Amino acid sequence: MTEKHYTIKDIAKLCQVGKSTVSRVLNHDPKVNETTRKKVQTVIDSIGFKPNRSARAMRGAQDPVVGIIVSKLNSSGESQTLRAILTALYRQKITPIIVESQFNEKQVAHHLNLFKQRQVDSVIVFGFSPLSKDILQQWQGNMVVIARYFKEISCVYYDDQGAIHALMHKLHSQGYHHIGYLGIHDQDETTGRLRTQSYLDFCHRYKLPPNFSLTELNIEAGYQHCARLSLPIDALLCATTSLAVGAVKYLQEQKLMCPLAYIGQNPLLEHFVPNLISLDFGYEQAGNQAVDLLLAQIRGNRDVQQQLVSFQLS
User: PROSITE patterns, per this entry (predicted)?
Assistant: First the structure.
């Protein structure tokens, strides 16, 4: 069971005083009546209350700081989301501390502990499989997770299955019936399993022959695994931008260029590759929504919220 998150409002209710009185006690205001100060301080000590640093900072008491744990800094999608987060935080005069988990649960736990030691009580975490909710729920401050759905934690997540279905529908509606698919291993819940399942479901529904290969999340893997797809292929769908870049290289070398669709957006691909179908997955939107949710928590809203990011087909 997670520990209750007490607020200044809770303490004021327990002490039967106003919130402003509690704030003055926390800020060591000498004008507070000594009897009242002792009563409030006793309650604060008994429940182990620690003032929300971010909330106090936004009222000008100290410099505001938010911790951000990204999975991988060179990820195209995460980079777009991170840029939106930083822009929104800078607008609020909040300083970010950015660290990288490298898809390692232990690193996430380490970074959260580091933030706690530095009295950073508000974090944004880029979720990944198999990141456990138990690790995240040990955090006692404000938190928003991006890319993974958690019922018990505020999060901003993507429509992985809907995006693949939309791309498959567009290719199929253009008359393509031998659609190859380059995806990510099923150990990855979102980018991997959910997207692959959506591809297979579409093939089953429209009686298309499944033709897919699952691999790692990098350009070289896209290049190598494109060769493993069976011929004929009259169109190709890639689960990520990185796989699409590798696939384009292979197809060009083999002079097998065919319509290519992928999740994400890449200016170079769009400039040099004909018959390209891209999908704006909402990375920037996710960053803005994550900051909005975190700011609401900092201001005292403890409601757990899940927000689905919408995508836009080009």
Answer: HTH_LACI_2
- Collapsed DSSP state (helix, strand, coil) of residue 289: helix
The number of CA neighbours under 13 Å toward the Cβ of 268 is 8
Q: What is the pLDDT of residues 63-97, one digit of tens each?
A: 689 999 999 888 888 999 999 999 999 999 999 99
205 and 273, same structural domain? yes
Domain count, the chain: 3
DSSP per-residue codes, 25-65: HHTT-TTS-HHHHHHHHHHHHHHT----HHHHHHTTSS--E
276-280/312-313 β-pairing = antiparallel
Q: CA 51, 54, 55, 56 torsion: positive or negative?
A: positive
Nearest CA to 164 among 19, 33, 279? 279
Q: Is the pTM of this model over 0.85?
A: no
Task: Tell me the residue range of the domain where 171 lies.
Answer: 160-280
Instruction: Output the CA torsion 20→21→22→28 (10° steps).
Output: 110
Residues 6+ apart with CB under 8 A from 259: 171, 174, 176, 234, 235, 236, 275, 276, 277
Whether 157 contacts 309, CB under 8 Å: yes
- CATH (domain of 180): 3.40.50.2300
In angstroms, the first-to-last Cα distance of the chain is 45
- Of 184-188, 229-233, 272-276, which gets the smallest average pLDDT? 272-276
Element (H, E) at 68: strand 65-70
Distance CA 77, CA 238 (A): 14
